[in-house]
Amino acid sequence: MRIDILTILPSLLESPFNDSIMQRAKDKGLVEIYIHDIRKYSTKKHKNVDDYQYGGGAGMVLSIEPIAACIDALKAERTYDEIIYMTPDGEVLEQSICNQLCLKGNLIILCGHYKGVDERVRQMYITKEISIGSYVLSGGELAAAVLVDAVVRLLPGVLNDETSALTDSFQDNLLSPPVYTRPPVFRGMEVPSVLLSGDFRKINAFREEEALKRTKERRPDLLS
Ligand code: 6GU
Predict the structure, then answer these.
(1) Domain that holds residue 96
(2) C-alpha to C-alpha distances, 213 to 49, 66, 196, nearest whole angstrom
């Protein structure tokens, strides 16, 4: 998979992909991630990438020209399966969307800012609009990092058996059961004895039960 991310704040996207599972995915050649500074595509004197909105009102709007120049340059090299715009008015991200996106080859992700991007960018280029929840971020960069992390970890070969995505919360619409490691007793708090029993039928039954209980308590919406 190849992911091209367009941003006016490239420094915000430097560290999220350089550790742990993301770094391993890159090292294994399972994903290539490229960060593009939209400012480099500005033809203005002072490399502006935004302008006042027509009709008046507070807040700057990202201009279409530098974004179009960057996307056109990318599309001239290869075809893209989706061109995604990160925006609070997009479809709210769910595991099912991540599962679909991890099957794609090439993705472009555009990070919004200020009052957003010129609507014509959305009409001309964008195939999917994604939000990561009902709250407002200063820009789309952190949301893009969330999306990329959630998608890349699903690529075949990124996770091993131990970290398998199949046992993730949400993959079966259930939250994960509680987990424990040594010591068996800490300040009088005991690990549930069934987990120490070695009886895997009982252990699995316990985990399923706890997952269901936790989901009923915390996220009943997942069960309906
Ligand atoms: Cl994708 N962008 C911004 N700016 N805020 C958000 C968001 C995206 N998702 C939730 N809040």
Answers:
(1) 2-152
(2) 50, 51, 21
How many whole angstroms from 187 Cα to the centroid of ligand 1?
A: 43
Q: Is 133 left (phi over 0), alpha (psi -120 to 50) or beta?
A: left
Per-residue pLDDT tens digits for 24-74? 999 999 999 999 999 999 999 999 999 999 999 999 999 999 999 999 999
Pocket test for ligand 1, best of 113, 137, 146, 149 (most atoms within 8 A of CB): 137
Q: What is the pLDDT of residues 170-197, one digit of tens each?
A: 878 999 999 999 999 999 999 999 999 9
Nearest alpha carbon, ligand 1 atom 5: 137
The minimum-distance atom of ligand 1 relative to the CA of 113 is 4
The pLDDT value recorded for residue 162 is 64
Q: Is 76 within 8 Å of 51 (Cβ atoms)?
A: no
| Residue 162 within any structural domain of the chain | no
User: Which atom of ligand 1 is nearest to 137's Cα?
Assistant: 5
* CATH number of the domain to which 106 belongs: 3.40.1280.10
Domain boundary among 111, 126, 152: 152
Asked if the bond preceding 66 is cis, omega within 30° of 0, the reply is: no
Same domain for 6 and 116: yes
Closest ligand 1 atom number to CA of residue 143 = 1
